[in-house]
Amino acid sequence: MHLTEAGEVFLERSYLVLAQLEQAIKVTQRIGRGEVGRLVIGFVFFNLARKRTQWESNRDDT
Q1: Collapsing DSSP states into helix, strand and coil, what is residue 37?
Q2: I want to staple 36 with a disulfide (CB 3.0 to 4.6 A). Which of 30, 42, 48, 58 is the partner?
Q3: Which distant-in-sequence residues (6+ apart) come within 8 Å of 11 by Cβ?
């Protein structure tokens, strides 16, 4: 049995799709296990009262 040119292209592309599917499964499994991903923890502290005092003192100087 021989494939047509269109059949050969279809078969080649099908293998690529299956390889991508396998990779997607592996990555999502790793994400589910917590092996892949990024955790960012940030902290911002803004002392509004202090900034207001500074602003008022700067305003009085002008």
Answers
A1: coil
A2: 30
A3: 3
Task: Supply 22's token pair.
Answer: 């396998």
Question: The domain containing residue 27 runs over which residues?
Answer: 5-61
Q: Please name which of 11, 39, 36 lies closest in space to residue 25, comparing C-alpha atoms.
A: 36
DSSP code for 33: T
What b/e string do you get for 16-39 counting C-beta neighbours within 10 Å, with b at 16 or more? eeeeeeeeeeeeeeeeeeeeeeee
DSSP code of residue 36: S
pLDDT digits (tens, 9 = 90+) for 8-38: 999 999 999 999 999 999 999 998 898 988 7
Q: For the chain, how many structural domains are there in total?
A: 1
